[in-house]
Design brief:
Blueprint (H helix, E strand, L loop, with lengths): L3 E13 L8 H8 L8 E13 L11 H12 L7 H4 L10 H19 L4 E10 L2 E5 L2
């Protein structure tokens, strides 16, 4: 039986600040430049999640998109509209780069899938910070 790959995209907003707390202000400014600011800055991110599985002969789908949308919403809920450094415990002592945020989302999606979606596989997570910057993460 062949496998089919499906991708779903969802946008969200959040803020972050790049800072290594053990470093001096000068070192943080040197390393992170404009990303090291007192209040942080925000992005409109785009998350793409790629799934793979067999097509169900009755429904013609590998998974119902409504179920994927619920899983994406639940995975984004703790960070959407939040300042990552100050409102999300997982980022309290971690620099919330696009790479780290993509890994965080991949782990949340992977855990959600293990509970709810038998036979479906999370293949990749792609997180766009902008049109010219994105990160791919594989489980």
């Amino acid at each position: 039986m062949s496998l089919t790959r499906l991708a779903r995209r969802r946008g969200f907003h959040c803020l972050h600040r790049y800072e290594v707390k053990d470093w001096t202000t000068d070192r943080n400014e040197l390393e992170f430049g404009a990303c090291f600011t007192p209040n942080g800055h925000g992005h409109t991110y785009e998350l793409e999640a790629y799934f793979e599985g067999p097509v169900d002969p009755l429904t013609g789908m590998i998974v119902n998109i409504a179920d994927i949308d619920k899983m994406l919403a639940a995975s984004l809920e703790p960070i959407e509209g939040k300042h990552l450094n100050f409102e999300v415990p997982e980022f309290k002592d971690t620099v919330p780069t696009t790479e780290v945020l993509a890994e965080y989302l991949m782990n949340r999606l992977f855990k959600s899938m293990k509970k709810s979606f038998k036979g479906l596989r999370l293949v990749k997570v792609r997180l766009f910070e902008s049109d010219s910057l994105w990160v791919d993460v594989w489980p």
